[in-house]
Amino acid sequence: MSADPAQSAALPHWRALESLYASAPINSLFTSQLEIPAEGQSRITYAVRPDSFHAAGAVHGTLYFKMLDDAAFYAANTLITDRFLLTTAFNLHFSRPIRGGTVIAEGRWVSGRRRVLVAEARLIDETGEEVGRGTGTFMRSHIALSGLEGYARAFRAGD
């Protein structure tokens, strides 16, 4: 059985997006890893640390936003191979506190392919419970992906 040609052609872009995520300075503050399994999908695994807790001993809302926004963003950017996307709006819903462990942010593209894209994400704690959900809109920027070191590095590594 042969691989899907469209997916095979997209793999370098997906690996470059994973490299871009890893290269972002903000991610030095978060123990996380991005995986892009298919077009329009992303999965980010986070190891929650106590230094991300608010005073009541659970993860602060800024981390929920970071995880959900990143997962939705990268799911959408799988469809755009030339430009970096920008978040223009994000709606966030908290459903349960996160008190530690490993959390998975699953992103999924919903609609749009030209100028504006919509994607959603959900957070799953290590017991399998959904702890948060969000939907974002993303638009193409003037920033070429190929001009971003973290993205371009993946192509040089493949040479």
Automatic annotation (TrEMBL):
Signal peptide: none annotated. SUPFAM superfamilies: Thioesterase/thiol ester dehydrase-isomerase. Pfam families: 4HBT. InterPro entries: HotDog_dom_sf (IPR029069), PAAI_dom (IPR003736), Thioestr_dom (IPR006683). Residues 57-130 form the Thioesterase domain. It comes from the Bacteria. The keyword Hydrolase applies. Coiled coil: none annotated. Keywords: Hydrolase. The keyword Hydrolase applies. NCBIfam families: unchar_dom_1. This is Hotdog fold thioesterase. It comes from Novosphingobium ovatum.
